[in-house]
Amino acid sequence: MKVKMVWKFSGEGALKTAQHHLVHLQDYALIENIEVLEFGTEKLTDFTAHAFMIVQEEFVNDLRKRLNPHQGFMVE
Description:
Elements: E1 2-10, H1 14-32, E2 36-45, E3 48-56, H2 60-67, E4 71-75
Antiparallel strand pairs: 1-3, 1-4, 2-3
C-alpha cells in the first residue's frame, strides 16, 4: 500500500513555501536513502497549498516521527 504524506501551508506565499519545503523533503529522502514514489505540490486556493510525497507504507511510521506531516492518506 502507498501513503501520501502531506504538509499544508497557508497565507499569501503558500505555494512558494510548499515548493521550498518540497526541496527539503527531496534532500532528506536522498540523504536518508528513502525510496519516494512521487513528490509534488498542489495549489488548492490562492492562499492554500500542499507539499507531498508518496511512499510505501513500510516507511510511514519512521517518517511520521521524523518529518511530522500534517496529514496522510492511503493511495492506490
